[in-house]
C-alpha cells in the first residue's frame, strides 16, 4: 500500500523489547527518537539499565511471581506484558533477539509484531535444544515482519518457522559519514602507548566465541615490527588470563596491547591507523566491526562464515579464512600487510563503496521506518 503524505509524516508510538544496555539496541532506538517518534522500551523488572536517552520511556514488566514455576512464569509474563501494552497502546511491538525477547513478545499476543534476530540467538548451540527450537519457531512464525542481515540468516529464519513473504533485509548499519577513510592520528598512537609500527587490530570482545587464541597464534608468525591491538571492553577475565599466558609462551607480550576500554573516537582512529582488522569468530550474523573497518577503507581478514562470505566473497576473497586455522589466518594477514599502494587503494575503494551502498545506517533505518508505517496502515 502506498503511503499518503500524512501517513509518511505522522509520528509513531513504538514499543521495543531487547537488551537495554546493548549498543546495537541503543543505536536502533536512537534513530527513531531523533525522528520524533514516541519510543518505549520494555525492560525486565530488576535489570539495571545504564544511563539512557531521556526521550526513551522505560517501562518494566515482571517475569514471574513468588513461585518460579515455568508454566506460571509464562502466564505472569503474558499478564504483565498485556497490561503494559494495553496501557501504552503502541502502534507496533519490535523485539530484538529471538531468545527471551521475541519469545516474550510473542507470548503477549500483540500485533503488529516485528522480530529481529541478531545471529547468535539462532546460530549458537542452544538451537539444538528442542525447547529452544519450539520457542524460536513460535516467535518467528508469529511475527508480522522478520528482519535479517543476510541471505544466510534469511534461510535460517525460514527453516526456523518464519513466513518467507514476511522477511525483510535490514542492516543494523554503519554511520558511513563518520566511519570513513582518514589520515592516521599520531596523537592517538602516543596517547594509547602505541608505536608507529604496522598495526593488526582485533576489535571483537575478548570472549571464547571470537577465537582470539587463533589470532594470537597467527600473529606470532608475523614480522617483529608488527603490533596487535585488542579491545578489553567486556572481556571474559578467565579467557583473557589464558590469552596472556599464551602471549608469554609465544614471546609476543611486548607486541600485544590490550586496551581496557576503547572510546568511540579512539575506535574510529584505530580503524584508520590499522593496517588490517581481523575477526574469526565461531559464528556471526553481519559483523558491524567488519563493516566499520571496510567503511574506513581498512583491509580485513575474516572467518569464512556464510554471511561474511556474502559480504567479502566478490570484493576480497583473499580475506576469507578458515577461522580455526592459525596458519591460514597468518597467511591472510601477511597478504593484507604486503599490499602495494595501488592494491590497497583499489581494495579500500571497493570495500567502502559496498558498505555505503548496502549497509549505511541512515538508509537502512529509513527503510525500517517505511516498513513500520506499512504495518501500521495495512
Fold topology:
Layout lengths: L4 H5 L3 E5 L5 H12 L3 E7 L12 E5 L8 H19 L3 E5 L1 H11 L4 E4 L3 H4 L6 H13 L2 E4 L2 H9 L7 E3 L16 H6 L7 E4 L9 H8 L7 E5 L5 H14 L5 E4 L4 H10 L2 E4 L8 H8 L4 E4 L2 H7 L7 E2 L4 H12 L3 H18 L2 H17 L1
Parallel strand pairs: 1-2, 1-4, 2-3, 4-5, 5-6, 6-7, 8-9, 8-11, 9-10, 11-12, 12-13
Helix pairs in contact: 3-4, 4-6, 9-10, 9-14, 12-15
How many DSSP-defined strands?
13
Beginning-to-end CA distance, first to last residue: 7 Å
Kindly provide the radius of gyration, computed on alpha-carbon positions and rounded to a whole number of angstroms: 22 Å
Give the spatial strand order of the biggest sheet.
3-2-1-4-5-6-7
Give the class from helix and strand content and strand pairing.
alpha/beta
List the secondary-structure elements in sequence, H or E. Answer: HEHEEHEHEHHEHEHEHEHEHEHEHEHHH
Report the portion of residues in β strands.
5-15%
Overall morphology? globular
Largest sheet properties: 7 strands, parallel
What level of helicity do the residues show? 40-55%
What is the arithmetic mean of pLDDT?
91
List segments where confidence is low: pLDDT < 50 over at least 5 consecutive residues: 1-6
H/I helix tally: 16
Question: Would you summarize the structure shown here?
Answer:
The chain is of the alpha/beta class and 378 residues long. The chain has 16 helices and 13 strands.
Amino acid at each position: 500500500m502506498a503511503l499518503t503524505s500524512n501517513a509518511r509524516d505522522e509520528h509513531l508510538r513504538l514499543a521495543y523489547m531487547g537488551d537495554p544496555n546493548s549498543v546495537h539496541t541503543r543505536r536502533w532506538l536512537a534513530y527513531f527518537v531523533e525522528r520524533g517518534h514516541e519510543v518505549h522500551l520494555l525492560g525486565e523488572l530488576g535489570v539495571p539499565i545504564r544511563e539512557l536517552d531521556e526521550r526513551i520511556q522505560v517501562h518494566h514488566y515482571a517475569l514471574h511471581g513468588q513461585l518460579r514455576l515455568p508454566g506460571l512464569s509464562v502466564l505472569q509474563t503474558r499478564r504483565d506484558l498485556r497490561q503494559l501494552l494495553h496501557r501504552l497502546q503502541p502502534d507496533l511491538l519490535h523485539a530484538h533477539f529471538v531468545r527471551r525477547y521475541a519469545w516474550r513478545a510473542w507470548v503477549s499476543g500483540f500485533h503488529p509484531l516485528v522480530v529481529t534476530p541478531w545471529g547468535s540467538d539462532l546460530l549458537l548451540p542452544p538451537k539444538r535444544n528442542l525447547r529452544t527450537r519450539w520457542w524460536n519457531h513460535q516467535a518467528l512464525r508469529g511475527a508480522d515482519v522478520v528482519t535479517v542481515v543476510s541471505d544466510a540468516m534469511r534461510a535460517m529464519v525460514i527453516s526456523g518457522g518464519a513466513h518467507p513473504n514476511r522477511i525483510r533485509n535490514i542492516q543494523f548499519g554503519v554511520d558511513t559519514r563518520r566511519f570513513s577513510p582518514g589520515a592516521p592520528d599520531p596523537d592517538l598512537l602516543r596517547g594509547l602507548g602505541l608505536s608507529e609500527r604496522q598495526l593488526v587490530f582485533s576489535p571483537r570482545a575478548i570472549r571464547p566465541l571470537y577465537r582470539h587464541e587463533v589470532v594470537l597464534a597467527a600473529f606470532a608468525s608475523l614480522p617483529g615490527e608488527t603490533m596487535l591491538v585488542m579491545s578489553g571492553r567486556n572481556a571474559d577475565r578467565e579467557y583473557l588470563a589464558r590469552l596472556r599466558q599464551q602471549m608469554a609462551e609465544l614471546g609476543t607480550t611486548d607486541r600485544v596491547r590490550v586496551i581496557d576500554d576503547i572510546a568511540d573516537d579512539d575506535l574510529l582512529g584505530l580503524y584508520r591507523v590499522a593496517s588490517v582488522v581481523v575477526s574469526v569468530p565461531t559464528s556471526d550474523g553481519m559483523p558491524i566491526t567488519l563493516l566499520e573497518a571496510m567503511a574506513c577503507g581498512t583491509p580485513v581478514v575474516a572467518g569464512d562464515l556464510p554471511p561474511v562470505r556474502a559480504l567479502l566473497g566478490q570484493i576480497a576473497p583473499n580475506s576469507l579464512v578458515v577461522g580455526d586455522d592459525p596458519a591460514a589466518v597468518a597467511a591472510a594477514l601477511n597478504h593484507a600487510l604486503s599490499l602495494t599502494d595501488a592494491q590497497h587503494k583499489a581494495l579500500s575503494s571497493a570495500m567502502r563503496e559496498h558498505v555505503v551502498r548496502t549497509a549505511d545506517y541512515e538508509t537502512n533505518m529509513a527503510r525500517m521506518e517505511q516498513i513500520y508505517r506499512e504495518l501500521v496502515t495495512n
